[in-house]
Model the fold of this input.
Amino acid sequence: MQSEQILDLLRLFSYSSSIFDSDDIVRGWFSCEIPALSGSRPVDLLDTFQGRAMVRDVLGRIKRGEFS
Done:
């Protein structure tokens, strides 16, 4: 079970790296309060599947250029 969570986290970080240009930007984004996450920091949502899904959804919107 825990290995699935770790793999999901790794996939999420890999996905975010494919969207942003640098690891520094990725680290910064995960540490910032994100309005699309109701002001939550992505790093604070990573401990649950639902939280990771929310972060993944926002990253997908960024990738597609949807910023509303």
